[in-house]
Amino acid sequence: DRAMGIFTSGGDAQGMNPAVRAIVRMGIYLGCTVYFIHEGYQGLVDGGHSIRQATWASVSGISEDGGTIIGSARCKDFRERPGRLRAAKNLIEHGINNIVCIGGDGSLTGANLFREEWSSLLKELVETNQVKQEDAETYSYLNIVGLVGSIDNDFCGTDMTIGADSALHRIMEAIDCIATTATSHQRCFILEVMGRHCGYLALVTALGSDADWVFMPEAPPEPGWEDQLCNKLKNTRETGQRLNIIVLAEGAIDCEHRPIKSDDVRELISKRLKYDTRITILGHVQRGGCPSAFDRLLGTRMGAEAVLALMEATPTSKPVVIALSGNQTVRVPLMRCVEKTLAVAQAMQAKRFKEAQELRGRSF
Ligand code: ATP
């Protein structure tokens, strides 16, 4: 007889739909009324048609679809208390005090704040006659479970985030395609991949594609890298290699925090080595297409576990994130993971790159 709401927030990721499907079906199986909250926090703030009951059939055949069928958005209103007050009122109106948030670290930080404020939001809603005292007592606490949907694999606490594996597949396919044409024409290709703060996609695809060089934010190259890079490329050509692949994360920086841009690397190679050097920026292709088998299964397992965690939550339970540890789905404290993820960003900002790598390393 419990009601639960689910929403997807922040950037979309392949594998969100299998998670939505598993949450809806596990929820219904356990006797809950499940609601879709459309367009992330915006739907929570707007209420009305944005909050709609899910049925068993409404999630039929969605596992193979990329993106998220319930929409995702970034929402300014939810960052301010008046927006969160409207969100709380909308939840109470639907009798919902269990929510699953599927999003990145920003979305999960917002969810945690919402939960912490819940009592004071209810108090204000009662005082301003927007919610009845008895309803405030019935829904006196808010249970939250988070799932991390992010192609970047940038969240500490889980081995993999939903969407990262599919993005790896997209990138590897692209590199394979580029490699054939690069070989024919003896070209050098710079492939720019997503990852503003996290080099996971760049590192893994560079390893998997036998790339010559990788630029990633957590491991800026040593001063003098320009000479090292050119020497390396020259040596490989001299041993008979007909192509060069360089993978560059969009957030790549040097030791002084200056961005390393694809254009600069191309200019360096073209000028010094006179190689025909091209840039391919994959962009949103990496977020698109069907989820991989791994992401379908990950979303499904995490979604089912999220519902179990919600059902077992008590008024004093701390919010959790469903994470992958080895091959197990586990529950980890939401705020500790968010704090650790922020600590990585701070370490990088302060040029403590070793520390950032170590903190990140534990999440991979
Ligand atoms: P991605 O990894 O794709 O960027 P994300 O969840 O980190 O995903 P954000 O844009 O940071 O994306 O956050 C998504 C939404 O979550 C924001 O638009 C906002 O509505 C809410 N949010 C983020 N941070 C906070 C916060 N500190 N307080 C309240 N709400 C927040």
Automatic annotation (TrEMBL):
<comment type="similarity">
    <text>Belongs to the phosphofructokinase type A (PFKA) family. ATP-dependent PFK group I subfamily. Eukaryotic two domain clade "E" sub-subfamily.</text>
</comment>
<feature type="binding site">
    <location>
        <position position="278"/>
    </location>
    <ligand>
        <name>substrate</name>
    </ligand>
</feature>
<feature type="binding site">
    <location>
        <position position="105"/>
    </location>
    <ligand>
        <name>Mg(2+)</name>
    </ligand>
</feature>
<feature type="binding site" description="in other chain">
    <location>
        <position position="250"/>
    </location>
    <ligand>
        <name>substrate</name>
    </ligand>
</feature>
<feature type="active site" description="Proton acceptor">
    <location>
        <position position="152"/>
    </location>
</feature>
<protein>
    <recommendedName>
        <fullName>ATP-dependent 6-phosphofructokinase</fullName>
    </recommendedName>
</protein>
<comment type="similarity">
    <text>Belongs to the phosphofructokinase type A (PFKA) family. ATP-dependent PFK group I subfamily. Eukaryotic two domain clade 'E' sub-subfamily.</text>
</comment>
<comment type="subunit">
    <text>Homotetramer.</text>
</comment>
<feature type="binding site" description="in other chain">
    <location>
        <begin position="194"/>
        <end position="196"/>
    </location>
    <ligand>
        <name>substrate</name>
    </ligand>
</feature>
<comment type="function">
    <text>Catalyzes the phosphorylation of D-fructose 6-phosphate to fructose 1,6-bisphosphate by ATP, the first committing step of glycolysis.</text>
</comment>
<feature type="binding site">
    <location>
        <begin position="104"/>
        <end position="107"/>
    </location>
    <ligand>
        <name>ATP</name>
    </ligand>
</feature>
<feature type="binding site" description="in other chain">
    <location>
        <begin position="150"/>
        <end position="152"/>
    </location>
    <ligand>
        <name>substrate</name>
    </ligand>
</feature>
<feature type="domain" description="Phosphofructokinase">
    <location>
        <begin position="4"/>
        <end position="309"/>
    </location>
</feature>
<feature type="binding site">
    <location>
        <begin position="74"/>
        <end position="75"/>
    </location>
    <ligand>
        <name>ATP</name>
    </ligand>
</feature>
<feature type="region of interest" description="N-terminal catalytic PFK domain 1">
    <location>
        <begin position="1"/>
        <end position="364"/>
    </location>
</feature>
<feature type="binding site">
    <location>
        <position position="187"/>
    </location>
    <ligand>
        <name>substrate</name>
    </ligand>
</feature>
<feature type="binding site">
    <location>
        <position position="11"/>
    </location>
    <ligand>
        <name>ATP</name>
    </ligand>
</feature>
<feature type="binding site" description="in other chain">
    <location>
        <begin position="284"/>
        <end position="287"/>
    </location>
    <ligand>
        <name>substrate</name>
    </ligand>
</feature>
